[in-house]
Amino acid sequence: MSSMLPDEGEHLTTGWEDDLAPTDSLVRQAVLAHVSWARALTTAARGTFSEGESWCAGRGGGASALLNWAIVTRPPRDWAQTVDGVTAAYPDGVSAIVISPFPTPDLTSHGLALVGHPPLMFRPTSTTTSPPSTPLDVREATTDRQLQDAERVLVEGYPMPDMAALPPGDFYRPDVVAGPTRVFVGYDGEAPVATAAAHSAAGVTVVENVAVLATARGKGAGAALTWAATTTWPGQGAVLIASDDGQPVYERLGYLRVERWTCWLRP
To answer: Which residues of the chain have pLDDT under 70?
Structure first.
């Protein structure tokens, strides 16, 4: 048994070292890809992006939690220190979503409220799935008008009521699609009714901001827009953080549940 023990002083890889390849594990890829997504949205919104030893925090410039993403990026050595760093990144009155890929202690004493434990889902490139059928015209948003259409559907369909008063184009600025991010809109005629976004980082595609107007639900719109985002870069797998209601849709598209993450809200 003693031969199994490491040499004295030998470093034992945890999977979260800074110099480790993103592909060391699927979860590491998913974490780094979501950090990149948060950074991209923050940059496009002319916001601020802060990082500590075990966390990052993007402040998009508005009070809505959905504009402000914080992510625990590795198992913290000190949860109190990590939460203090995250909360200090946001001024009073600004809400933020705090996502942890790792089990967390009770953080309510730090002013956070537990939202839930959404599953991380992954679709490998080896999966064979037929594209979902839809009567919608699915277009990539490349113009200001199309990006504003996507933004309006996101605000009304997600919904994001605390973003309703923002000027059109304040969230999906043209800069957001200047890098490795793509936004899609599903049109019923010329009326935008569904949207989704895709972001490429760490060798995977992050699928985010899937939303469908209430009038278009039950017609495959969500599946069609998720498919467009999922297959944006066909040569790489895709990850997403699912709601419990959305899981069946994603499973039909070939997504697999990997593990549950933890989502907290800084009110």
So the answer is: 1-2, 61-63
What pTM did the predictor assign? Answer: 0.92
The string of pLDDT tens digits covering residues 60-97 is 866 677 788 999 999 999 999 999 999 999 988 888 99
C-beta atoms surrounding 256 within 10 Å = 13
